[in-house]
Specification:
The chain is α/β, with parallel strands linked by helices and about 950 residues long. The chain is built from 12 helices and 65 strands.
Length: about 950
């Protein structure tokens, strides 16, 4: 042990420092790694005896407060000190480590560094103490830095200040550090234009990172004085200017240039870089490509390895491809996405034999999908989604790109069969052929030859056949989308789906039979979408074992029976069981589903009352129970649902009054309704320092996703969708629009009583429908507070009195109906939205007058007479004597019935014809009723 030179105790969760005081016996120890343990400041004195130590790693060991480096004065040979990921707010005594070459203070809480005499600010301490050595202050988010004391930094070579907070004056003084080679100032909260002096004097600077700040304006002309610069990152700022006249054209030593996410004009000709013979990486995403006439052909002196120009807003790029690209033969990554390229550049694949990533997303590509004539084993990712490519997928694609990792051809016009050669792509993990015109069946070779397939999407095609092929070989498959095709047949009764599956979508097909019970054993399932098929039978109780399930949509099938009482997983967020033939009461289904956001049980045969436990679903935002046979009063427990924004109880048998406590529900819009945050992010990353040799800043900071940045997919690629009736029509709300929808529909029930005045407090709702009930009393004037309302339907009730004149303040109202009530007086003034409503909004109210009705208020009886008449009519039950009407109707009915019986008794021919007619009508109506109204009968017959 006395001769031990390296000791690594990292990642052990050690808390006790007992025994570390005996480290002095390790007289030859040069490297000690204690990172990611549970020490604290008490460990520091035990380390001071290690005079031979050269490297000390104390990353993430809960150091906090002020650290006195002077305690390490015996470590005169220390060259590397890592104090990152702690809670240090100040450091002093750096001068004692005269040989220090690397100091890492990332992810701390530094407020200032104090020298031994306490006279200098943060960077004056570091700079005066570590000449000729690198200093790293990355992620010291609270470090306050000034530019004083720079005179002592003339030999400093590497300075890392990323994610700090420094004063802009630093850039005016840093030029005195003439030996500086690496300067990284990423995300240091600087803004404004770059100064034209004070920093351009760094003639030895090789790497400069100014990314993720708020710099704007033109690049200063002094930038061309950085004659040694190799790596320059200006991304994520607000710089402007045309690169043709920029000082960048004189930086001939550039190897790496990132200008992404600025407002530069980049000439398509690339003439600004014609003499940059060392340029290897150019990133210019989210700028603007300017089409420029090339008066003479020029041959570039550079050979790029990475070219990324996505989303540069060129509408004319399709006229002619950048000429310099015809001379590039060493490209590894190409991303020209979101530009109007038009012609598929197969020659790029032909010329660049070591190409790895090829992205042409949304480039208006037309014509066929072409492949190079030779085999390219280096290509790992191809994404040509969102184009107009047509024709078949080349049958030899698997042999041309055998090592493809990611293939996306979605949203094109590709037709034909899925080539069997896809099974030759042994390393394929992501395959997205969705939204095309593919036909035929899924080739078996695909599932056999691609054992690492993770994401498999064939949605929105014309594929057919049975889903009977075995996916069991795909042991890593997690996402399977076969929706919106023409697959038919029964779902396999045996387990042919891998247990690793997290999302299954077979919606909008022609599947039938019963839901398989074995799905309950797939414990990894997060999302299931099987809607719009022909499944029948009960929901298997085995579904109750899906402990990770968050999304379930089996709507629009023929499922029957009751909802299993055990189906109450706490993980479920969205449950769509609507448009089936489910029956019985709700019992305890969803009783413990505390995460439930959407519950759609509409259009079934459910009965009974709404259970009281409904109030425990505190995050419930959408509750749809329409078109069932629920009865009883609307429970006051609904008022406990503070997140509720859409409530639909229409077309049931609810009775009693509208609960007064509805005013306690804010009915606010929320993103939780459409959010399906149940996916993961899968990405293919490329370390850019692999393309630029000897880089320090890229190695430490610039590990990024190039070309397509992130391959993102959710565990269920289905938008949350609900149907809600508003504005006299049923609409399907999905995506972001659903977030902004809120409403209450209590129509077509047997509700009684007056409309509570407190309903006017629901200021966030956009739809309120109380039609087809037995509500009476006046329309609350508080409805004028419904400032967001777009549809208000109070028709077919027994409301009386006048229409409140304050309603004309509802400026967003598009649909308004008070038809078929007992309202009286004048219609509201024809102002604002009320000038758009037609007669149908007011019809069926004999005592209403004014435009748009035909009745003129000036010709009607006086108001007092009208009021008395109206009161008398209400008391008497209407305009006629109802008792006399009932007696006369009954007598007339009996006389007519006896007359028909007498005629049929006397004339046998008429009697035979009558019975034959009745028999034919009964048979015809029976089959018509059976074929078309079974579901309606189910709802109304119970």
């Amino acid at each position: 042990m006395n001769n031990l030179e390296k000791l690594d105790l990292s990642y052990n969760s050690i808390e006790d420092i007992k025994g570390f005081e005996r480290l002095y016996v390790l007289g030859k120890l040069e490297l000690l790694d204690l990172s990611y343990n549970s020490f604290n400041n008490g460990i520091v004195p035990s380390l001071c005896v290690l005079s031979s130590l050269k490297t000390l790693n104390l990353r993430g060991i809960n150091l906090n407060g002020s650290i006195d480096i002077g305690e390490f004065h015996n470590m005169s040979n220390l060259e590397e000190l890592d104090l990152s990921e702690n809670h240090i707010d100040s450091i002093k005594g750096l001068k004692s480590l005269s040989k220090l070459k690397m100091l890492n203070l990332r992810w701390n809480e530094l407020k200032g560094l104090v020298t031994s005499n306490g006279r200098y600010g943060c960077y004056s301490t570091v700079m005066t103490a570590t000449a000729d050595t690198p200093v790293n202050l990355n992620h010291t988010a609270k470090a306050a830095v000034t530019g004083g004391g720079l005179d002592g930094l003339k030999h400093l070579q590497e300075l890392y200040l990323d994610h700090s907070s420094i004063d802009k004056i630093f850039l005016h003084n840093v030029g005195v550090m003439s030996s500086l080679r690496v300067l990284t100032l990423r995300n240091i909260s600087l803004n404004g234009s770059l100064p034209n002096q004070g920093w351009c004097e760094l003639s030895n600077l090789q790497e400069l990172d100014l990314s993720e700040n708020g710099f704007n304006g033109m690049l200063p002309s002094c930038l061309e004085d950085l004659t040694s610069i190799r790596i320059l990152d200006l991304s994520f700022n607000q710089f402007i200017g045309n690169l043709t006249s920029s000082s960048l054209s004189n930086l001939l030593t550039l190897e790496f240039l990132s200008l992404s996410y600025n407002h530069f004009e980049i000439p398509v000709s690339f003439i600004s870089f014609c003499n940059h013979s060392k340029l290897k990486v150019f990133l210019g995403d989210n700028n603007r490509l300017s089409d420029q006439i090339e008066f003479q052909t020029w041959i570039p002196k550079f050979q790029l390895k990475v070219l990324s120009l996505s989303n540069c807003g060129s509408n004319n790029l399709g006229m002619k491809f950048p000429h310099f690209l015809f001379y590039q033969y060493d490209l590894r990554i190409v991303d020209l996405s979101h530009n109007s390229v038009r012609t598929f550049p197969v020659w790029l694949l032909e010329n660049n034999t070591r190409l790895e990533v090829f992205d042409l997303i949304n480039c208006s590509l037309i014509g066929p999908f072409l492949l190079p004539s030779y085999r390219n084993p280096h290509v790992s990712s191809i994404d040509i989604s969102d184009n107009l490519l047509e024709g078949p997928i080349p049958t030899n694609i698997g042999s041309i790109f055998p090592n493809l990792w990611n293939l996306k051809t979605s949203r094109n016009l590709i037709q034909g069969h899925i080539p069997t050669s896809l099974g030759d792509m042994h390393f394929l993990e992501i395959l997205d052929l969705s939204n095309n015109n593919l036909s035929g069946q899924i080739p078996k070779d695909l599932t056999i030859g691609c054992p690492y397939l993770l994401f498999f999407k064939l949605s929105n095609n014309n594929l057919s056949g049975q889903i009977s092929l075995s996916f069991v070989n795909l042991t890593t498959l997690r996402y399977l989308y076969l929706d919106n095709n023409h697959f038919a047949g029964k779902f396999p009764y045996s387990v042919s789906i891998p247990p690793s599956l997290e999302a299954l979508d077979i919606s909008n097909n022609h599947m039938y039979g019963k839901l398989p019970r074995w799905m309950g054993n797939m414990s990894s399932l997060i999302g299931i979408a099987m809607f719009s098929n022909h499944f029948e039978g009960p929901i298997p109780v085995e579904f109750c074992k899906l402990s990770n399930l968050q999304f379930l949509d089996v709507s629009d099938n023929n499922l029957s029976g009751s909802v299993p009482s055990c189906f109450n997983q706490s993980t479920v967020k969205h449950a769509h069981l609507n448009q089936n033939q489910l029956s019985g009461p709700m019992t305890h289904a969803f009783y413990n589903s505390s995460s439930l956001v959407t519950l759609d049980l509409s259009d079934n045969c459910l009965n009974g009352t709404i259970p009281n436990w409904i109030g425990s679903l505190h995050v419930l935002s959408i509750l749809l129970l329409k078109f069932n046979n629920f009865e009883g009063e609307i429970p006051v427990q609904l008022c406990q649902l503070k997140q509720l924004s859409i409530l639909d109880l229409s077309e049931n048998n609810f009775s009693g009054p509208i609960p007064l406590c509805f005013r306690e529900i804010p009915f606010e819009t929320t993103h939780e309704k459409s959010s399906l945050e149940i996916g993961i992010q899968q990405s293919l990353t490329f370390s850019l320092w692999n393309f630029v040799e000897g880089s320090k800043s890229l190695e430490d900071h610039y590990l990024m996703d190039i070309a397509y940045e992130n391959i993102i997919f959710h565990s269920l690629d289905v938008q949350q969708k609900v149907e809600f009736t508003t504005k006299h029509g049923s609409y399907a709300y999905k995506g972001n629009i659903l977030d902004y929808m809120s409403g209450v529909d209590l129509s077509c029930n047997h509700l009684t009583g007056e409309i509570p005045l407190e309903m006017g407090n629901l200021s966030n709702i956009r739809d309120l429908n109380l039609s087809h009930n037995n509500l009476f009393g006046s329309i609350p004037s508080t409805f004028s507070q419904l400032k967001q309302i777009e549809s208000l339907d109070l028709s077919y009730n027994r409301l009386n009195g006048k229409i409140p004149s304050q309603l004309i303040e509802l400026n967003k109202l598009e649909v308004f109906s008070v038809a078929y009530n007992n309202l009286s007086g004048a219609t509201p003034d024809q102002k604002a939205q009320f000038a758009t409503f037609e007669e149908s909004s007011y019809e069926g109210n004999p005592l209403l007058c004014g435009f748009p009705l035909q009745t003129n208020c000036n010709k009607t009886v006086p108001t007092s007479t009208m009021s008395k008449g109206l009161d008398r009519e209400i008391e008497d039950g209407g305009f006629i004597d109802m008792e006399v009407f009932y007696v006369s109707f009954l007598v007339s009915y009996i006389i007519v019935l006896l007359g028909i019986v007498a005629v049929l008794f006397i004339n046998p021919h008429w009697r035979q014809a009558w019975f034959h007619l009745v028999e034919m009508c009964m048979t015809s109506w029976y089959y018509f009723f059976l074929d078309n109204f079974m579901k309606f009968f189910c709802n109304r017959s119970m």
